[in-house]
Design a protein that fits this description.
By secondary structure, the chain is of the alpha/beta class. It is about 45% helix and about 15% strand. It has a single domain, classed as Aldolase class I (TIM Barrel, Alpha-Beta Barrel), CATH 3.20.20.70. About 45% of the residues are buried.
Length: about 280
């Protein structure tokens, strides 16, 4: 499994930042801090009956550039909680996504008890412990980055009191996720080799997710129509960043994704999508 050029650049930047943080705070110190943090809760406790929205604190992306440079992590997390999000995702990669690690701690303190996901390119045990030390309840693990190391990292996340959201992009990665013991599987519609989004990725892979896992659809979700389409074929939650961050009212944007009303044309389209989906 080889890393595409875009992904190699990001992972290289993550490695540089990680080296600096390890020098500043040695592993024994970060591990001790991790043990002091209590977990907020299980994401299943916050899903409810309808689709769950994992609302993301996202300042920038490699494909879009700056989305909202002046974003306040604490204020945004409060808005997400008010809107009915089932969890808050915090991007903490700084060079390409503009996400300082302090956003994670600030969101954790302000989100009113919701589970908090650290979304980053997690590479080793230091980053696992670091995530818990800064308040993460959930940890993104990307199969395209970790490969067969995914199982070991899922185990580490559990040992530090977190759940792992194991991210896949194709059938091969889904097999690795299934064998890793993952309880939450994220299907990312964004192709990491081209950065293009194809919603058919989730439609194809959702039926292949291990039974009993929480199934999360990531990337390209921007409307209630998208949410309902995938919820109808098995998605439990949706990780949504840009569509919410760009909204002038984040709480209302989340409510619309969860509770929007279809017009007749949208309902007709939804039924046809469900009929054609595997």
């Amino acid at each position: 499994m080889t890393l595409a050029h875009h992904l190699r650049q990001i992972v290289s930047a993550v490695q540089e930042g990680l080296k600096e943080r390890k020098a500043a705070v040695p592993f024994p110190e970060i591990a001790a801090l991790a043990k002091e943090n209590r977990r907020h809760g299980n994401i299943r406790d916050f899903l409810g009956e309808g689709p769950g929205i994992i609302a993301e604190i996202k300042r920038a992306s490699p494909s879009r550039g700056w989305i909202r440079k002046d974003l306040d992590a604490a204020e945004t997390a409060r808005s997400y909680a008010a809107g009915g999000a089932c969890a808050v995702s915090v991007l903490t990669e700084n060079r390409f996504f503009g996400g300082p690690l302090r956003d994670l701690s600030e969101a954790r303190a302000a989100c009113g008890g919701l589970p908090v996901l650290r979304k980053d390119f997690v590479l080793d045990e230091y980053m696992v412990a670091e995530s818990r030390a800064h308040g993460a309840d959930l940890l993104l693990l990307i199969v395209a980055v970790l490969g067969e190391k995914t199982s070991e990292m899922v185990r580490m996340a559990t040992e530090y009191g977190m759940e792992a959201l194991v991210e896949v992009h194709d059938e091969e990665e889904m097999e690795i996720a299934a064998g890793s013991g993952a309880t939450i599987v994220g299907i990312n519609n964004r192709d990491l080799t081209s950065l293009r989004v194809d919603l058919n990725t989730a439609a194809r892979l959702l039926p292949q997710a291990p039974p009993g896992t929480v199934k999360v659809v990531e990337s390209g979700i921007s409307s209630r129509t998208d949410v309902t389409r995938f919820h109808d074929i098995g998605a439990d939650a949706f990780l949504v960043g840009e569509a919410i961050v760009r909204s002038p009212d984040a709480a209302e944007a989340i409510r619309k994704l969860k509770q929007g009303v279809f017009n007749k044309d949208q309902e007709k389209e939804r039924v046809e999508w469900k009929r054609r989906s595997p």
